[in-house]
Amino acid sequence: PAASLLYPYGLDQQDHKNPKLDDGTSKKISLTVPFTFYGKEYQTLYVNNNGVVSFDSRVKQYTPDPLPLADGRSFVAPYWGDVNNVLGGDVFYRQTTDPTLLARITENINQYFPKISYTAKWAFVATWDHVAYYGSTSNKGNTFQAVLTTDTETSFIILNYWDIQWTAGTASGSDPETGLGGTPAQAGFNSGDETNFYNIPGSQTEAVINITKTSNVNVPGRWVFQVDNFKVTGVPTEVP
């Protein structure tokens, strides 16, 4: 039952798979339903190997910067760090209107946001499956997921953290054997307007490895945000 934190993913779900390439990205993905993020409607995105889903432009940068960024990039970073999928792991993605998955997402959103009447009409699921870090001499891998969903008016992003074993690559200063140290991963959102952003507690500190135990919806390892007009929900004040 614990594995149900992650929504189904993989080739049997008709997922696409990113190329095995350090600092690689997906091709430009045209969305079948526009997605509203911080009051702006987007129709294209990229799934970047380094733990970022970005709107309109790629993010190949491997050492994260603290949010907000001043360069206008808009993205969600489930776990922005130096992934090298050549050394291990896969990055999957798909957009879907599968009724079974949409029903499950709808049920989850209604549970976490009881005051909002929401029925998911579309979802985009990006999953990093046991991905290795740059410079790794271990077999450590991180498994996490970002899910975008909309009913065409209200948009949500669900971040799922299933297994986090490393926090940085060696080019960001980590130890090649442990994947710890250096500049740890960043988790959160950047709207691109320098005003609206959110850092998940523990970001860019060694505590980010405990993100599988934190939540803003009382489900350890899951963070959920309404992002059409940004609102931070039930966020704990203490750092993990």
UniProtKB/TrEMBL annotation:
Signal peptide (UniProt feature, chain positions): none
Organism placement in taxonomy: Eukaryota, Metazoa, Chordata, Craniata, Vertebrata
Gene from which this protein is expressed: Tecta_0
Stored PANTHER family: MUCIN 4-RELATED, SUSHI DOMAIN-CONTAINING PROTEIN 2
TM spans (from-to): none
Protein name as catalogued: TECTA protein
GO biological process: cell-matrix adhesion
Boundaries of every NIDO domain copy: 78-230
Organism field: Sula dactylatra
